Task: inverse folding
């Protein structure tokens, strides 16, 4: 890749040092211990979770052999159970992992609080793992996942699809080229939560549906009665009070809007700015506070010290947004974050003229187009273009501004007029073959996936400090060496989970 490094690369050489290895996002040495599998030989993949997002993850890996499925809720998993009617089905992933000896790799797409327990059981048995974002619910579990993956030499990937995107790499390369100078401020925003948060009372118990194993769903969490939520409960997606989707809003089960979207929206920030541990984290605004749920909306400030030649940076996370927040230095009328979406056009009726051809969008990596000036102009003029919900990020430099969408798609300079004849900098980073293919390739002994746990766990660790900041008052100051919050002793209880009797980690089922 040396031929691609021009004058600007050498000027920013010290900045780039250690950002991402030229050969990829990690070392392949540990993976060789598991033996080489030909790229043409299919993996045997099992999935812990079969409904909801797990259905998408299974589909993303369906070019391999799907050999076993596990889900505690028959109703939620019905479609995938029917599609794979001949493979073994389980409710308890521990039984599946002990009985199905031919499994090579495991998808873990279940509520956040059960990620580490399921993934560690799989990794200790030599299974590669794909684990949905935000990887885990607590900092201690993030460290455990990283240590376990490296100990057993398995291929890993966190399900933050944007890390595989072309836009994420373009954003990093634009910043490293000096396009907007020194970045000292970042804003990221989302319309999440789109599920209930900030409730102050738990409804009375109801009978558990016959399709659901409630005890297995609770897993490591403390026991509590099942409830549908009762009449008038603002449930989302036709669910019940806790599941199959609303668990995200509960302290005991999820990580709120941060857990749902930060690993996506902040991925470009983490890569481009080489963010490590922040010097402080503070929730500076929140609305709709609850004893057992995340607030309805919040603003969190992360402060990061200087990193090499990069200056200190303050990063603001805004959730519960109904519109894009005001960003310092952005001219009025500029579109930030996700660009409008063109709805699918219905074929013309008989005798009706066809719609004019539209500029072709070339997706790269996992999902999301690269910014194209002609496509942008077409969207502005398109009467059928639909505004996207507010999701995205903006990088404020001393020479300019860059914005991008949820998965870092459409990375572009602001004012957008600067993009009319813009040429992206030379490629400095390796490109992903696609989010799922990235992991599958790693499972077969290839380069580690771009969001493998060596990358994902440190990212998640600093993100989860914001989750804790939502639960305590004042600034959080954190000692990563001791894995301890030094500014608030009470906050340390949120660094690791508790385990219900009969549940734990590892072959013996005991928490470490």
Result:
């Amino acid at each position: 890749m040396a031929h691609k490094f021009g004058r600007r690369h050498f000027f920013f050489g010290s900045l780039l040092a250690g950002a991402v290895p030229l050969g990829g996002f990690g070392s392949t040495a540990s993976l060789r211990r598991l033996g080489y599998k030909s790229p043409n030989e299919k993996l045997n993949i099992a999935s812990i979770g079969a409904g909801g997002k797990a259905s998408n993850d299974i589909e993303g890996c369906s070019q391999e052999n799907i050999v076993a499925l596990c889900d505690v809720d028959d109703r939620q998993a019905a479609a995938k159970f029917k599609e794979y009617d001949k493979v073994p089905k389980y409710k308890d992933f521990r039984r599946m992992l002990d009985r199905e000896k031919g499994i090579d790799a495991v998808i873990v797409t279940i509520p956040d609080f059960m990620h580490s327990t399921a993934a560690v059981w799989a990794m200790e048995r030599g299974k590669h793992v794909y684990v949905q974002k935000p990887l885990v619910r607590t900092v201690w579990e993030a460290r455990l996942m990283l240590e376990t993956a490296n100990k057993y030499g398995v291929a890993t990937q966190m399900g933050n699809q944007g890390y595989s995107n072309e836009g994420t790499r373009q954003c990093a390369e634009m910043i490293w080229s000096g396009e907007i100078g020194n970045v000292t401020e970042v804003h990221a925003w989302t319309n999440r939560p789109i599920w209930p948060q900030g409730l102050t009372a738990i409804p009375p118990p109801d009978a558990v549906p016959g399709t659901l194993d409630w005890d297995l769903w609770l897993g490591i969490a403390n026991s509590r009665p099942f409830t549908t939520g009762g009449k008038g409960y603002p449930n989302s997606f036709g669910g019940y009070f806790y599941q199959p989707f609303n668990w995200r809003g509960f302290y005991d089960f999820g990580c709120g809007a941060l857990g749902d979207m930060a690993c996506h929206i902040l991925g470009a920030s983490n890569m481009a700015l080489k963010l490590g541990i922040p010097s402080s984290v503070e929730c500076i605004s929140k609305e709709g506070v609850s004893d057992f749920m995340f607030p309805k909306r919040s603003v969190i400030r992360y402060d990061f010290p200087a990193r090499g030649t990069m200056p200190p940076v303050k990063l603001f996370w805004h959730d519960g947004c109904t519109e894009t927040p005001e960003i310092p230095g952005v001219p009025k009328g500029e579109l930030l974050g996700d660009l409008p979406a063109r709805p699918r056009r219905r074929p013309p009726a008989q005798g009706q003229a066809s719609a004019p051809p539209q500029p072709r969008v070339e997706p790269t990596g996992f999902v999301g187009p690269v910014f194209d000036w002609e496509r942008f102009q077409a969207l502005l003029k398109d009467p059928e273009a639909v505004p996207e919900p507010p999701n995205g990020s903006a990088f404020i430099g001393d020479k300019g501004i860059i914005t991008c969408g949820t998965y870092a798609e459409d990375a572009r300079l602001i004012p957008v007029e600067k993009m009319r004849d813009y040429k992206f900098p030379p490629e400095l980073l390796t490109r992903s073959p696609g989010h799922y293919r990235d992991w599958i390739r790693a499972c077969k002994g290839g380069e580690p996936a771009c969001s493998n746990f060596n990358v994902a766990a440190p990212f998640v660790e600093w993100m989860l400090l914001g989750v804790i900041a939502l639960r305590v008052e004042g600034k959080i100051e954190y000692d990563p060496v001791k894995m301890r919050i030094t500014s608030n002793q009470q906050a340390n209880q949120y660094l690791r989970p508790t385990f219900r009797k009969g549940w734990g980690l590892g072959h013996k089922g005991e928490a470490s």
About this structure: The chain is about 25% helix and 15% strand. The chain has a mean pLDDT of 89. The first strand starts at residue 44 and ends at 48. The first helix runs from residue 7 to 11.
